[in-house]
UniProtKB/TrEMBL annotation:
Organism of provenance: Sulfurospirillum tamanense
The protein's name: PAS domain-containing protein
Protein origin, superkingdom: Bacteria
Length: 228
């Protein structure tokens, strides 16, 4: 692999080259992760929509979102009808500053169930759970993490239905002091999210080295998975 190819392979932004039929000819590492959350056809269709009218390269500033990915721009280039390339530009995201291997061992399913049970008391809200069943016991700062979950569920206190999804981020990890840690997410979703809890949730997340991301009807908590 030449230096330029290595540079593209390790680029922070996803890069894909398609043939004329929308089949992927080459892609970098970041694009592989992206295609785990969005279909190849959807990216190919977007490339066609933002390509220049004649051969060449065109960069467009826009707002795109696919799963946990958000982009602020796209460059599309082609010099023949045989292939077309696309590069998407990611918004900068929060990063984990440290990894704290202290904390108390806890069963994440039990912790979530306790927070859901506390939230559901006196409410008619329907709760749905979609949990990856393979999680080991984790080390968490339980008090802070429980407060963050409670703020999260309080944000959806008027929603008729709240869905909680627990999963690992496929292909992603954080390296700290020569160790690699998987990353897991807790996604809570419901209608009519109350934004008044955002600042409190962000403040709590910082104290326990989590990242919390807010969408219109979702709150996503991301954290390193440290086995107990």
């Amino acid at each position: 692999m030449q230096f330029l190819e290595k540079w593209i392979e390790h680029d922070y932004n996803p890069f894909i080259i398609f043939d004329a039929n929308g089949k992927v000819k080459s892609l970098n590492q970041e694009a592989q992760y992206l295609l785990g959350e969005v279909s190849t056809k959807e990216i190919f269709d977007i490339a066609g929509a933002y390509a220049a009218i004649t051969y060449g390269f065109k960069t467009t500033i826009l707002d795109l979102e696919f799963g946990s990915y958000r982009f602020y721009g796209i460059t599309v280039g082609y010099e023949s009808e045989e292939e077309i390339g696309v590069k998407l530009y990611k918004y900068a995201t929060q990063k984990f500053s440290t990894i704290a291997e202290y904390g108390e061992p806890v069963n994440i399913y039990t912790l979530l169930d306790l927070c859901i049970s506390a939230t559901s008391t006196g409410q008619n809200t329907q709760f749905k759970k979609e949990f990856d069943p393979t999680f080991p016991d984790l080390r968490l700062q339980i008090d802070g993490f429980t407060k963050l979950l409670n703020k999260t569920y309080a944000s959806f206190q008027h929603a008729p239905k709240i869905t909680t999804k627990l999963s690992l981020k496929t292909g992603e990890h954080i390296r700290f002091k020569e160790k690699k840690y998987p990353i897991f997410t807790i996604l809570v979703e419901g209608e009519g999210r109350d934004r008044r809890f955002e600042l409190d949730a962000q403040a709590i997340a910082k104290t326990i080295n989590c990242i919390v991301h807010f969408k219109e009807e979702q709150i996503i908590i991301t954290s390193p998975l440290i086995s107990a």
